[in-house]
Amino acid sequence: MPELPEVETITRRLREVLPGKTITLIEVLREKSFRGDPALLAGQQVIAVDRRSKIITLSLSGGSFLIIHLKMTGQLIYVSKKQRIGGGHPTNDFVSALPSSHTRVVLTFADKTVLYFNDMRVFGWIRLVANEGRDLELAKLGPDIIDEAVTPEYFFAKLAKRSLPIKQAIMDNSVVAGVGNIYACDALHLAKINPARTANSLSKVEATRLLVAMKTVITLGIEKGGASIQNYKNVEGLTGSYQHIRRVYAREGEPCPVCGTKIERMKQGGRSTFFCPSCQI
DNA sequence: CGGAGTGTTAGTCG
DNA sequence: CCGACTAACACTCC
Q1: Which segments of A162-246 does DSSP mark as H helices, in order?
Q2: Residue A270 approaches strand C within 7 Å at CB
């Protein structure tokens, strides 16, 4: 599940509880899910929790960082006596006993609270890195879509150099970071632009309209993700509520919310694209 | 059993 | 070196 809005929501929630906690134990249940020397973690205190694109960074007292990518099925669940906090791909792990069969890494803190990293498909990862390692990882990314640095001028200039379909261009993290499939489809629909058009065919006006649409749907997603993520008593409450107001994503055959035409689906770059054939030209 | 899945990256080719 | 394209990662659900 995790797209930028959900990662932002998880980050905000963990930021309320993790700073100040001292790591006493780390258990790596699946080697592939953790890179670095776990022994270096014991005794380190979490200083800060931040997000850039879909990467979460825990800054540690020793000067190193834990960087976390949830990819498609990752979850972070912080468990104390009082509550479960976190989020990610919605599964029963949210409410079942932990560790579960999908738990890959377990961080235990001095106060006996625990942070579980679950990841069904094992695409996600946690890496222990120094400054350079973190910079290396973040250097691959263009500016965050919700960053002020992404101006219409910047965006239009980037698109002008690319001949691939606009849908794939806006999902390219080196253009703008943090736009996944759901928000790419919905933003193109909101901006009334056909996903198959080449990136360099957009006019400045269209590029600007699309950029505003992308920022709009992502911001809306953050608001909706933050609204429902606090209820950990049931799985529904953990999925965020943007899905209830999404425009076209996974709505094949349903009427377009604007004109009523049946929403169609096609393949782009191996992934599904949903669009309205009437509105998006 | 086949296909699809909300993300990224390594490898290939031009 | 850059862009475009494909396969691959590992597992569950329909």
Answers
A1: 166-170, 181-190, 204-228, 242-245
A2: yes
The encoded tokens of residue A133 equal 């390692």
Q: Which tens digits make up the pLDDT trace of A124-156?
A: 999 999 887 788 788 888 899 999 989 999 999
d(CA A181, CA A1): 11
Q: Which residue has the tokens 């009437």?
A: A278
pTM of this prediction exceeds 0.70? yes
Q: Strands A125-129 and A34-35, how do they pair? A: parallel
Cross-strand bridge partners of residue A39: none
Q: What is the mean pLDDT of residues A104-112?
A: 96
CA torsion angle A175 A263 A281 A209 (round to 10): -50
Residues of A with a known catalytic role: 2-3, 54, 271
Angle between the N-to-C axes of helices A152-160 and A204-228, in degrees from 0 to 180, rounded to the nearest 10 = 120
